């Protein structure tokens, strides 16, 4: 069942090229652009509330930036266990997007039920066909990632990012707010992404393996990112802590100086996302501050960028937000290799269940 891989997690990470291809099949191509028949008859929302937990919540945070920028829809992203108990302000003009791989997460379900009671429309973005989220939502978009067995979610997030990007394009086109080149560039990039991922994954694993030997003795890790990469920093930290049991915190790079930088010393490494985008100079200066405190730094970065780091993990550059699809497997593989090197039970980490059906 593991298809020759040592763990389901590794197999599922390596399935991501296929996952992207399956997500876009019938939904996006160069000739027709983007089509989401699941949303036929639904106007672009006035306000969008994304509700989710864990990795699905991180995917939602990532989608927020694209939906705001391409579709000019105000978006709030909410942790479902908080959303369900708040004194919510929702009405029939609001759309709630419930993101859940399993479609059975208790808090996400409770959040979407409250939203429906208040008259909002609920879209379910889930992976498991026939799950409770898919049955109770007004509209369902399936992520089609296939069964995810490992407790640590990997390919499901990749599929969620793909669908969130398609949603941003769909609503942006519906509203006429989509920047002229965005659809063509995004679709072209998405269509080419599976082959880029396929070619890169083996090399990413080698780098992750060698870095894991160097950093697995750390007791704590700081993950930093800005802009579209900030949610990826949160996800990298979550992956590391849940399967290797190493304490990790994900932060927006600019927040470092507001407290967390006090933690930095030679024993507390930083994993930075420092890619070629508008915010690179800011990220670089944040990393200079870490270096000045003798903090060791691993950075995922792009060719030709100069950075004050101990280990530069250079990945190929693709179009705009699609770079996150290459960052994600690096973070997953790093966590995987550290956990495996430390002899942890990668697929069944302690204290965790695949689907959290209780509060
Ligand atoms: O099935 P869901 O997407 O609703 O699950 C949400 C979280 O429980 C899940 O993402 C969890 O955080 C994973 N263990 C992360 O790897």
Automatic annotation (TrEMBL):
It is found in: Cytoplasm. Its EC number is 2.6.1.16. It catalyses: D-fructose 6-phosphate + L-glutamine = D-glucosamine 6-phosphate + L-glutamate. GO terms for cellular component: cytosol. Residues 38-177, 207-349 form the SIS domain. It is an enzyme of class 2 (transferase). Coiled coil: none annotated. Its main location: cytoplasm. Keywords: Aminotransferase, Cytoplasm, Glutamine amidotransferase, Repeat, Transferase. GO terms for molecular function: carbohydrate derivative binding; glutamine-fructose-6-phosphate transaminase (isomerizing) activity. The active site is at residue 354. GO terms for biological process: carbohydrate metabolic process; fructose 6-phosphate metabolic process; protein N-linked glycosylation; UDP-N-acetylglucosamine metabolic process. Homodimer. Catalyzes the first step in hexosamine metabolism, converting fructose-6P into glucosamine-6P using glutamine as a nitrogen source. This is Glutamine--fructose-6-phosphate aminotransferase [isomerizing]. It comes from Desulfobaculum xiamenense. The chain holds residues 248 to 606 of 606 of the full protein.
